Amino acid sequence: MMELLRDPLWQFIGAVLALLALPTGFWIYLLQRARKEIAYGLLSSRRLISLSSDLRDRVAITLDGKSVEDVHLLIVGIKNSGNVPILESDFLYSPSIRAENGTEFISAEISKVHPSNLQPSLKLYPDRLEVAPLLLNPGDYISVQALASGPSPKASPDFRIVGTSRTEPLLKSRPFSDRGDWGALAFWFSLLSFMIFAGTQMDSTAKKIFWIGGPSAIMLVAFYQWARSQFGAEASRYVDDA
After folding, report:
1. Low-confidence ranges of the chain (pLDDT < 70)
2. Contacts with 126 (C-beta within 8 Å, 6 or more apart), sequence order
3. How many independent structural domains does the chain possess?
4. Taking CA 88 as the corner, what is the angle to CA 84 and CA 31, rounded to the nearest 5 degrees?
5. 173 φ, ψ to 5°?
């Protein structure tokens, strides 16, 4: 065992790992420091009703007694994607989703909340959807389902929160198999298999490099990817299907 520790190759690898541990620890510290952040995104947009130009003058479609054309179903989400609470008093005014590009909101309702005891209040206006200020702990999110009319409905967030100057994009979670993770696993498995094969074809010094340095590098890269997926800012901007 002592002879192994005196091996210059092992000493070199230990020094490299020690040097890598310092920036890795600092990087994780940066990821975990207080971050106030809110995310917004259009999770789904689907056309429900559309009339061709030939039928617009002959067919009338009404909803709640009001004539409508080109009706779309929109699902938008709002999430506290930071790691500190957003208090009700942090909102300078009621956060809203404003219609753009000739869009007009017809109806709207809260379709999903997390956690289940979150109780947001929603007001409907033709040009905006307004949510009453409320406490949002890290990970809390709200999904709003709205019917909107217009040839190409579009909406944007209007938030003003103490401690943050912008709204981050909210992303819809995808299945594991669709995120490219299977490809990453296949790559690392293939690389490890190649190393095992190559190690059997080399002399003792080369084997040491392959069998010690190679797996160490793979573990470091795997740890980096895991830490990024767990603590990275983008990881908190995903929501389950609304």
Report:
1. 1-33, 49-68, 173-235, 240-242
2. 99, 104, 105
3. 2
4. 15
5. -60, 145
Q: Within this chain, do residues 153 and 232 fall inside the same structural domain, yes or no?
A: no
Domain termination residue (choose one: 140, 171, 202): 171
pLDDT of 102: 85
Phi-psi group of 139: left, alpha or beta (phi > 0 → left; psi -120 to 50 → alpha; rest → beta): left
pLDDT tens by residue, 104-141: 999 999 999 999 999 999 999 999 999 999 999 999 99
Determine the pLDDT at residue 175. 47
Residue 104, SS3?
A: strand
Q: Are residues 80 and 144 in the same domain?
A: yes
Q: Quick one: which H or E segment has residue 8? A: helix 8-32
Domain boundary among 171, 196, 213: 171
